[in-house]
């Protein structure tokens, strides 16, 4: 059988970093070739080279045995190569259908044939086993729905090669099953798929072959059957990992945070408390109100009623600024959208919330700023040439570390992590778990939201489960199991928020 | 330390450097064609001609860094000038009326900027529309207030602001230099300056990082308002009258200077030094073309082409 795709000895040099060092991979029709590796291993760069978004500095690309040269995603798309990137590349103001046909619009002479595009877009979504009003602008869709649009966009038209970069990160398990069905259908149609994921269980489920990258080099390539999970982790990290989830050994202290009867348009009479040294998990389906809850505590969203106590003293928070002063830190979900300043350097991103402690009269004390930032930079082992590097140049895991460094610098007593390991690989995940535990041992109170249940169960001392904006149960570490959590997470009451939740999740 | 010079910094340096190069090329070129061009007198003259738009451009840089725009600056020039000159006509001891007049003009700048900031933050109306409306309002108000006639017969001492010299340097030039030094220090050294860049880069992330984003946004419009009013007072002094059509279309020259200076209209990227060089680039061009007896219509075409080229250069360098 001829190879659908062959990338030979691809080299990509960035200033100060050799991102790809003679990496070669190939792809046969009807095959799923998985690509794994830690952050900065070069997976995303390789995909950008494949799409033409990034210019390669060496090597060659062959399609069906013939050498091809192109220099833009538009050209690669015309050659039948489609990429689904980690960060969505959708236009929020345009409808789902318009996004799906972006750049390949169907026209009647001069004018767009919206009717046909809508019909075909709906068909494509239906192939994914989903239903969606394709007339809605993307900005009105949930994360999972946006992902579906992104996938629909990739599979519409005459596509022979699809590269998927972390496609399942924002999806629920049901949606993942749907996606895998679609992938199998595409396979049987002769399409070749390059599949990037940090969730190793997944790739054993869907992959035929696997290639491991580390620090821009290919370290191993094998049939999926020939390796197991531990092999892969060892190859990715370059060392053996002791355990998947380190347990929090901190002694629980006094109550540090208490929430009483919080209500808002998305939250339904929420009460809970958090102790010093405790890691409290919040579970729930997409749209259950988990992010809304922590945003409300942090003063980012308005509440209609309810009380918040820190160290048994009632406080009134109406803005993030006040929350920070009260000793609360929030690491938001989607760090690119809500956390980072991509126009600024690592230093400026880290110091931004604690500049008040780095002033000398009117001016920022740059010496102090640099030394403080360098301390965090070193402790968190952020991989970058220097603290002056722009965060734009960093990989997902390092970006997350920058946000984390910002909140460590504010020295908050209560740290809230919303999906802290989304899009982050095994090695860095473990670092983040360890860090969370260290913080707990230092007497901090920790709240973690995660959609990955094994992770949430693995690291939490106690888990509260949310559904429709309310709490449906609290489980201790000993009681918590995936089935139990899911049961509580789907305990729809048919109350005022049920419709919203069902649509989103 | 060598390693501290990273890509972002390098890009910044090259960007300023390339505008500086273009400016140098201009100066050399015009020196070849005109004996008079490279004389102290003419260079001071250029700085004087540039001073009014450059001062406004410094304020505009703050606004554009937050991904906003201020179209009201030209009309502010007119109305501030009219307010100041009207107060000067009141029968008071001259230094009292001078102080009050300048204060009135500047306070008006604060007021207009505050209004713009409130509409942008509280009512979430895009800066383009808010300041477009203010532009029309203040221009109209200038004509209504003066009945379309200039305000003349001002105390002699007022003319010193726009026409006087301090150790041989025109007063507006001195004020411009002071404005740029302060603006540069504010943007690069203070917490407020850092927040301006943060808000321009990602306003929601800025809010969640604990920045009072509304306060920052209102502040930048006030800065733009005050500096426009200051420029308006200087202009009124130079022409020794309050003119309702003063500063007409200044907003375009000012935005051109900022953009040529490398500041991104999408916010978050740019420097005050870039804006200074951008303003000078355009001023030198105008002056040189004048010396070469190029007609004002042709000048407009040339200036437009140069703006396009400068921005194109900037774009090519980035990619």
List keywords for this structure.
heterodimer; A: 505 residues; Rossmann fold; 3 domains; six-stranded mixed beta sheet; 18 helices; 24 strands; 25% strand; B: 319 residues; mainly alpha; two-stranded antiparallel ribbon; 13 helices
Provide structural commentary.
By secondary structure, chain A is of the alpha/beta class. Chain A folds into three domains: 5-237, P-loop containing nucleotide triphosphate hydrolases (Rossmann fold), CATH 3.40.50.300; 245-327 and 412-505, P-loop containing nucleotide triphosphate hydrolases (Rossmann fold, 3-Layer(aba) Sandwich); 337-411, no CATH class. Chain A has a six-stranded mixed β-sheet, sandwiched between helices. A six-stranded mixed β-sheet of chain A has the order 18-21-22-15-23-24, sandwiched between helices. Chain A has a four-stranded antiparallel β-sheet with strand order 2-1-4-5, with helices on one face. Residues 494-505 of chain A have low confidence and may be disordered. Chain B has one domain (11-318): Orthogonal Bundle (ABC transporter involved in vitamin B12 uptake, BtuC), CATH 1.10.3470. A two-stranded antiparallel sheet of chain B has the order 1-2. Chain B starts with 6 loop residues before the first helix and ends with a helix. Chain A binds chain B through residues 15, 298, 300, 319-321, 323-324, 330, 332, 337-345, 348, 352-353, 355-356, 359, 362-364, 385-386, 388-390, 393, 406, and chain B through 3-9, 185, 189-191, 194-195, 197-198, 200-202, 204-212, 267-269.
Tell me the radius of gyration of chain B: 20 Å
Seen as an oligomer or otherwise, the chain set is heterodimer
Total beta-strand segments of chain B: 2
What is the 3D shape of chain A? globular
Q: What is the CATH level 1 assignment of the largest domain in chain A?
A: Alpha Beta
In which range does the helix fraction of chain B lie? over 70%
**What is the CATH architecture annotation of the largest domain in chain A?**
3-Layer(aba) Sandwich
Q: Could you tell me the CATH topology label of chain B.
A: ABC transporter involved in vitamin B12 uptake, BtuC
Mean pLDDT across residues of chain A: 87
Strand percent estimate of chain B:
under 5%
Strand content of chain A: 25-35%
Q: Could you estimate the helical fraction of the residues of chain A in percent?
A: 25-40%
Q: Could you list the spans of chain B in which at least 5 consecutive residues all have pLDDT below 50?
A: none
Name the largest protein-protein interface in this structure: A-B, 35 and 30 residues
Strand order of the largest sheet of chain B: 1-2
Largest sheet of chain B: 2 strands, antiparallel
Average pLDDT of chain B: 92
Compute the number of helices of chain A. Answer: 18
Strand order of the largest sheet of chain A: 6-9-10-3-11-12
Largest sheet of chain A: 6 strands, mixed
Structural class of chain B: mainly alpha
């Amino acid at each position: 059988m001829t190879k659908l795709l062959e990338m030979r000895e691809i080299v990509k040099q960035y200033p100060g970093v050799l991102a790809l060092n003679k990496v070669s991979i190939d792809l046969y029709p009807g095959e799923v070739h998985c690509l794994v590796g830690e952050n900065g291993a070069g997976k995303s760069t390789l995909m950008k080279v494949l799409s033409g978004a990034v210019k390669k500095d060496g090597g060659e690309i062959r399609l069906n045995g013939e050498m091809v040269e192109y220099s833009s995603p538009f050209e690669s798309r015309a050659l039948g190569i489609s990429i689904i990137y980690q960060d969505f590349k959708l236009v929020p103001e345009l409808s789902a259908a318009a996004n799906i046909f972006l750049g390949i619009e169907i026209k009647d002479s001069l004018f767009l044939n919206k009717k046909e595009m809508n019909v075909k877009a709906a068909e494509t979504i239906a192939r994914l086993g989903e239903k969606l009003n394709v007339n809605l602008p993307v900005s009105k869709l949930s994360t999972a729905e946006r992902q579906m649009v992104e996938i629909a966009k990739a599979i519409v038209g005459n596509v022979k090669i699809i590269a998927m970069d972390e496609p399942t990160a924002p999806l629920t398990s049901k949606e993942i099953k749907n996606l895998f069905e679609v992938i199998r259908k595409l396979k049987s149609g002769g399409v070749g798929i390059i599949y990037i994921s940090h969730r190793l269980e997944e790739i054993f489920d869907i992959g035929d072959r696997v290639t491991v990258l580390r620090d821009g080099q290919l370290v191993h390539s094998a049939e999926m059957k020939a390796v197991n999970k531990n092999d892969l982790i060892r190859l990715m990290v370059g060392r053996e990992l002791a355990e998947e989830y380190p347990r929090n050994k901190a002694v629980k202290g006094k109550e540090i945070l208490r929430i009483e009867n919080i209500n808002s348009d998305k939250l339904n009479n929420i009460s809970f408390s958090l102790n010093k040294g405790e890691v409290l998990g919040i579970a729930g389906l997409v749209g259950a109100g988990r992010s809304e809850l922590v945003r409300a505590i942090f003063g980012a969203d308005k509440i209609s009623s309810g009380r918040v106590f820190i160290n048994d003293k009632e406080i009134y928070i109406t803005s993030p600024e006040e929350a920070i002063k009260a000793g609360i830190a929030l690491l938001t979900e989607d760090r690119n959208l809500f956390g980072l300043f991509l126009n600024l350097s690592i230093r400026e991103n880290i110091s931004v919330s604690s500049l008040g402690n780095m002033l000398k009269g009117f001016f920022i004390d740059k010496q102090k700023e640099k030394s403080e930032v360098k301390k965090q930079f070193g402790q968190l082992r952020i991989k970058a040439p220097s603290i002056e590097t722009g965060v734009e140049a960093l990989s997902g895991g390092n970006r997350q570390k920058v946000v984390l460094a910002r909140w460590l610098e504010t020295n908050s007593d209560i740290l809230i992590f919303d999906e802290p390991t989304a899009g982050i690989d095994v090695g860095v995940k473990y670092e983040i778990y360890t860090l969370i535990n260290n913080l707990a041992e230092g007497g901090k109170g920790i709240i973690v939201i995660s959609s990955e249940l094994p992770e949430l169960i693995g690291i939490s001392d106690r888990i509260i489960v949310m559904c429709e904006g309310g709490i449906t149960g609290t489980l201790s570490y000993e009681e918590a199991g995936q089935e139990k959590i899911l049961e509580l997470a789907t305990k729809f009451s048919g109350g005022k928020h049920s419709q919203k939740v069902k649509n989103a999740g | 330390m060598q390693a501290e010079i990273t890509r972002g910094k390098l890009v910044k340096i090259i960007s300023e450097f390339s505008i500086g190069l273009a400016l140098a090329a201009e100066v050399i070129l015009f020196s070849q064609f005109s004996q008079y061009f490279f004389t102290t007198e003419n260079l001071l003259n250029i700085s004087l001609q540039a001073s009014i738009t450059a001062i406004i451009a410094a304020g505009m840089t703050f606004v554009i860094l937050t991904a906003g725009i201020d179209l009201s600056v030209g009309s502010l020039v007119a109305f501030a000038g009219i307010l100041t000159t009207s107060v000067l006509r009141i029968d008071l001891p001259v230094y009292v009326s001078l102080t009050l007049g300048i204060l009135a003009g500047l306070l008006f700048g604060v007021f207009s900027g505050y209004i713009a900031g409130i509409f942008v933050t509280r009512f979430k109306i895009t800066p383009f529309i808010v300041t477009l409306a203010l532009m029309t309002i203040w221009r109209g108000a200038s004509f209504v207030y003066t009945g379309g006639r200039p305000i003349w017969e001002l105390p002699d001492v007022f003319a010193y602001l726009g026409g006087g010299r301090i150790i041989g340097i025109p007063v507006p030039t001195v004020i411009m230099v002071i404005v740029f030094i302060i603006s540069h220090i504010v943007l690069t050294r203070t917490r407020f300056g850092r927040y301006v860049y943060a808000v321009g880069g990602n306003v929601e992330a800025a809010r969640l990082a604990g920045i009072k984003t509304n306060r920052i946004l209102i502040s930048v419009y006030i800065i733009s308002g005050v500096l426009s009013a200051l420029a308006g007072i200087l202009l009124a002094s130079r022409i020794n009258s309050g003119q309702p059509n003063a500063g007409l279309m200044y907003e375009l020259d000012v935005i051109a200077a900022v953009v040529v200076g490398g500041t991104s209209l999408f916010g978050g990227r740019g420097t005050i030094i870039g804006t200074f060089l951008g303003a000078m680039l355009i001023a030198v061009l105008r002056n040189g073309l004048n010396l070469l007896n190029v007609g004002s219509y042709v000048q407009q075409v040339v200036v437009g082409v140069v703006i396009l080229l400068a921005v194109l250069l900037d774009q090519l360098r980035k990619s």
